[in-house]
Design brief:
alpha/beta; TIM Barrel; 10-stranded mixed β-sheet; two-stranded parallel sheet; 13 helices; globular
């Protein structure tokens, strides 16, 4: 597909949790404050996304993910209304909708509404209670695992599949066997293992540790015969190695696509990715502008090669270009990702891994 593949929308910058590793709230001055996108604002954004997706060169649906610096379900009424409104205006639209939520506000009514408008939720869940509650806490310091599982119960009660987003914290990396015990016991259909970035040293997981843990995830999935479990990262790398990469973000697999293939609405401002929020250099425009303008402005910053700008040939690997911001770091080391991709390709070719 030529152009933007994924649109993230951060409807608000408030949350009912205070996770210790949340990189958005580590620098709250960069956030736009408690302002929220109204129902009318969302109508404008979704209308622009839908029109963009009808371009002649578009060969797959644009994905819209309600995620970002706050808990999206705190604005569920506006989100639901905007998606339903788009369905009324354009009943044959091809936009695909997702959200990443902590699950605390999920009820059977909300789940039914999600199903009715075609929105798929993914739940932020870092494994069993003692691992999850070490970092994903409420504002009073108490853990959130029980409330998150209650939200998952609502999904199951309405027959919705359960996908989870696991953040690769130190606790998760050190206890992957236990995390997989929990995933297996719960029978989750999909898991994505997200990389932890832009956090203080006490929370940091190195690049080498992350890719080592991701390899172990692949091994555990194969060893346990979890054929029904889709691991989003591994599937993304598999597609990339097959020549069809998701050009959105290396934090969740595949290749960087900041500004050209991936954008985020941080309320009324637009940026190439969530890690660039609040930095004037990367601001691409306003929420009410046509999507065609954002890649053009990104080209003005990086050149037409985008994430591939100033990319040394020796650093390339078969899964595509690495994160643009990572490569701008003075201590950037491409080796861990290259080693993982090489292993992934060899394991796939040798048939040691089942479908991710």
């Amino acid at each position: 597909m030529s152009g933007i593949e994924r649109v993230c929308i951060s409807v608000n910058s408030v949350c009912n949790l205070k996770c210790t590793y949340c990189y958005f709230f580590l620098e709250p001055d960069k956030l736009p404050g408690p302002k929220v996108l109204s129902r009318e604002d969302l109508d404008v954004i979704l209308g622009n996304v839908e029109r963009y997706g009808r371009r002649a060169e578009a060969n797959k649906p644009v994905k819209v993910n309600f995620v970002g610096s706050g808990e999206p379900l705190m604005e569920w009424k506006s989100i639901h209304g905007a998606i339903a409104g788009l369905r009324e205006r354009r009943p044959k639209h091809t936009v695909r909708f997702y959200t990443v939520t902590n699950g605390l506000l999920l009820s059977r009514k909300v789940v039914r509404q999600m199903r009715d408008v075609g929105l798929g939720p993914s739940i932020s869940l870092d494994g069993p209670a003692h691992i999850h509650d070490a970092t994903r806490v409420r504002h009073n310091g108490r853990g959130s695992h029980r409330a998150t599982m209650k939200g998952i119960d609502a999904l199951r009660a309405e027959g919705m599949p359960v996908a989870i987003n696991v953040t690769m914290t130190r606790e998760v990396v050190s206890n992957l066997e236990e995390v997989f015990d929990f995933i297996q016991e719960q029978g989750f259909e999909k898991a994505i293992f997200g990389r932890l970035v832009d956090v203080p040293e006490e929370h940091e997981v190195s690049t080498a540790e992350f890719y080592g843990a991701l390899r172990r995830v692949a091994e555990l999935k194969a060893e346990r015969g979890l054929h029904q479990l889709e691991v989003g990262n591994l599937e993304a790398y598999r597609r990339a190695l097959s020549g069809a990469p998701d050009r959105v973000c290396t934090m969740f697999g595949s290749t960087c696509g900041s500004g050209f293939h991936n954008i985020i609405y941080m309320q009324r401002d637009v940026y190439p990715c969530g890690r660039m929020v609040g930095i004037d250099r990367w601001k691409l425009g306003r929420f009410d502008e046509p999507l065609e303008r954002f890649p053009e402005r990104m080209a003005g910053i990086t050149g037409t090669s985008g994430c591939g700008a100033r990319y040394a040939e020796a650093d390339r690997d078969p899964a595509g270009v690495d994160c643009l911001l990572e490569r701008e770091r003075e201590d950037y080391d491409p080796a861990p990702r290259k080693v993982f991709v090489q292993w992934m390709g060899g394991a796939r070719d040798a048939g040691r891994l089942d479908r991710a």
